[in-house]
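notes to self, project folder thing:

trying the whole complex as one job this time. last attempt i did each chain seperately and stitching them together was a nightmare. two parts in total, labels are on each line so i dont mix them up again. if this works i'll redo the older ones the same way
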Amino acid sequence: MRYLPHSTQDREQMLAKVGVSSVEDLFVDVPELARLDGPIHGLPLAQGELEVERWMQELSDASISAGSVPFFCGAGAYRHHVPATVDHLIQRSEFLTTYTPYQPEMAQGTVQTLFEFQSQVAGLLACDVANASMYDGSTACAEAVVMAARVTKRTKIVFSGGLHPHYRRAARTLAKHSGLEIAGLPIAVNDEAAVLQSVDDTTACVVVQCPNVFGTLTDFTELAKAVQAKGALLIAVFTEAVAFGLIKPPGEMGADIVVGEGQSIGNSLNFGGPYVGLFATKEKYMRQMPGRLAGETVDADGNRGFVLTLSTREQHIRRDKATSNICTNSGLCALAFTIHMTLLGDKGLKHLAQLNHEAACETADAVSSIKGVELVSPNFFNEFAVRLPSNAAQAVEAMAAQNVLGGVPYSRLRPEPGFDNMLLIAATETTTAKDIATLTDTLKKVI
Amino acid sequence: MAMNNVGRPSAPIAHEAAAPTTFSGARGLLQPTSLIFETGSIERTGVDLPPTKGLKARLSGLARQTSTGNPGLSEPEAMRHYVRLSQRNYAIDLGMFPLGSCTMKHNARLNEKMARLPGFADVHPLQPVSTVQGALGVMEQLSHWLITLTGMKGVALSPKAGAHGELCGMLAIHAALDAAGQSHRRRVLVPESAHGTNPATAVQCGFVVDEIKAAKDGRVDLDDLKTKLGEDVAGIMLTNPNTCGLFERDIRTIADLIHGSGGYFYCDGANFNAIAGRVRPGDLGVDAMHINLHKTFSTPHGGGGPGSGPTVLSDALAPFAPVPYVIKLADGKLDLVEHEDDSDGQPFGRMVAFHGQMGMYSRALTYMLSHGADGIKQASEDAVLNANYVQACLKDHMSVAFDGVCMHEALFDDAWLEGTGVSTLDFAKAMIDEGYHPMTMYFPLVVHGAMLIEPTESESKASLDAFIASMSGLALAAKSGDTARFTGAPYHAPVKRLDETRAARKPILKWAAPITPAQIAAE
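result (full assembly):
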């Protein structure tokens, strides 16, 4: 077995030093009835690289990869080009095979990149502080909801009708056990501000999204003021981080907590994970944040260095009184994010965002020129919703049969009367004119 | 080609003086670093993109008017920035990383290669299921391995990390109790030696925590447990092997006691790597257990994630598993159940937007296929043997916390440091100078000044012998009054000991432009 260094002789010598005759003697505390006589049945035995690679390749071939066909899926995960430098750097041994920086003197590479990551995220979202990342956008949203209840000491949570349904479900799963009451508004393409009507003096927060799940953009500035005047917090969610290269960031709208998905920058689709949740807030709520935080300090010689900090919020110190049970971040995905962001810079990000928007504009024009297809998003960044004359899930299946991945039917996220014909279409810098033409031709045939 | 030193052979010359500080700030191969905010520029970019077309925007006046403030670097500058930073990190690929409870074993690069196959890495979570059969195949196979290795009924793959898996298991218990009309059961028993995530998780699920004492042998105090049982007990959260590196030899009794009083047995599977392939938790009476794919199945720790915490469930809890999950249809095709209403069971909800950590599933499955049932068993045995070897070799130099054989990690306390003026922390920092990542320190809490050493199966005997020699040397130095070696450590790391107190007192969590003399003058 290529991963295990010991020879039989090594093992014998070591057992002798321990003072036992066989390895069985090291497992004496295992109850008799739970001891197995050999390798577990029903599983194959060890294999070489070649065999394993062949097996996995065959499995991989059973999928249609996004890069091999015209591709227009979004709804919370986006296909962008990732520079080769990013994937090379995150595979460096010193980044890939190290642990959470518990010993900062031998982890300055990790802690400094997290500090830079936090700075970039705060700049991108126009917020005072950001943490070192969360599992993904949906869990960041769930943690934000619980944090808002903690800050306000209130119990009611209001979700907008434009919030990604999976984010709503994930937040609900966490919130209901914290004794929180959930008010979810009816699904709406363009009515984020409706949340205000549900705010009362028990409301901890309202959760809105921009761009929302239908791609619609809303300025929350006035809403934030109104919500805050009632003593509640405004949580602004996003699923497409590239958007803030072009559109007004939630921090500038006065959002109290901003959470979302950072996958678009530096990370592949990966069938939904691992991704990187972004979490930012105002300075006054800093000590109520969940998750890891990197901070600047000095060493014994007075030289600048970085450490994990404010850990008194966390489970390993506070145990049952911690702000969250979270014990990790999404380190390597955050590293990919920060490297890609560093390569882009402000200038590159704005350029990239513009390319995305233009690709979506061209796709929207082409698709909505089909008879019977109606563009329903009043505005958008790189994703929009159209209403088809027939069932969207069936149209997507029929397009897939012709090797076109033509978008996500809304019903896939949440079956909802009246939304069966709704199709979400995303375009990015990877979308070509030929892809758009193929999508249009194929969609025409299947509706 | 020796043209650079022809006629000028280099030979060492003895010098008395201390090493001079350099003008560049470098120390030989260790290059100076700066922040991207100090070297980059808003106008610079390391990505070449096609020109934009100047189409009319459809943003309804929501165009961003401000800068993100994020500087760019050209590609060579970026490469150098991150490579220089990487060289300030320690890693498994550099040396032994005996961080107890964290399982820093070898990360095979085949796993990285397989995870990047386009059928797993370049598929969207919401593509039609007919187009993602390969990705679903990985999930189905991984489930099969996990269920078989643990002897359990079902598995929820979607939890994103160990603590998230704990949440999954405890939410399943919560849902099962509610379904049985047992909603008054809200007290969860947690041993005082438990990971901090256990009590934090229980509270997040709406339970209250009741601590159980540890007995003198480092295991659960059965008598204390018995007094804590009652009508309101929802269950127990127990790590096995426990955080002292010991197998809970009364585990069947504990399971029977909990079940007998109407509660469930959650097992924290953080230490499954000690018994994988040798013991099936299902045979021990476990109802739910998370498995850290990043520990037992060697998906890379990546400097703190991403992890992955699939949670195996017993017959009683499997129906409450969250959506989404994979099912096999009659025609052999795989399908996803994504909505609670579509489930045959009673899912407690949804934990994440999509399907969990696909990138970790493919790596873990590659590890499993490579090792096979026999290799996984051998890996567990070697991990346990290595820890016992380290314990046996160091027991005369340091004080072992509990007598007898250990599992995959050896636990020492700081009794042997008494009177030396050296603390566990100081000792750990001196290990950095020796070229080792320190062991886990001050955990578990039941042992004073704890030092928890987990070598893992990846270490050869020669590697262990070198580590033991280094640790013995340090132990002798501490006892012989060489205090400065410890209290001033690390001396040889890229930075000296860092001031964590200062960082917490006045937190600086992001870069800010330094105030210029002109700004000060203007105020």
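what i see at first glance: The first strand of chain B starts at residue 154 and ends at 156.
need to look closer tmrw
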